[in-house]
Amino acid sequence: MTRLILFNKPFNVLTQFTGEGATLADYLKVPGVYPAGRLDKDSEGLLLLTDDGKLQARIADPRFKLEKTYLVQVEGEPDEAALDQLRRGVILKDGPTRPAKARRIAPPDLWPRDPPVRYRKSVPDSWLSLTISEGRNRQVRRMTAAIGFPTLRLVRWQIGAWSLEGLAPGQWREAKPALPAHARKP
User: Fold this and answer.
1) Is the peptide bond between 150 and the residue preceding it cis, with omega within 30 degrees of 0?
2) How many Cβ atoms sit within 10 Å of the Cβ of residue 71?
3) pLDDT of residue 164
4) pTM of this prediction?
5) Cys bridge to 69: 105, 137, 150, 158, which one at CB 3.0-4.6 A?
């Protein structure tokens, strides 16, 4: 039977089982599962792991357009014009992004980050919910920087129908490995 694990990856943890510093092996003692996609060391949140190579590919491959939602703390206060740039797609060095779903949100009730995000009295910050259907290297950070609002904190909250809801940093749970219909088609 296919296993699918939802893991809340803490800040400063590598998305692999070996390496320098904190890795998945420090949190998961589940043999035979591997990450479906990446999450940078300086990002937090939902990471899916599975023992099924086909499922792993379908989750990670941008061809299947599985949406990923991020809670993003940015430096500054983006207006509707800036959010519209994200909604249309922005031009990055490796080409244009697909249009994103973007909106400002109230600061979410998240766990404290260790170390905390630097606070600057003279520079406001705000939070966005950003949903993308690709997964380029550091894409969300590059998108917010491209519109003039650098990312301070990045938490992946949801992948498809799988959510981080109820998982503290470093915790994991098993989930049903069902993909949405559009992600099952090659």
Assistant:
1) no
2) 21
3) 95
4) 0.92
5) 158
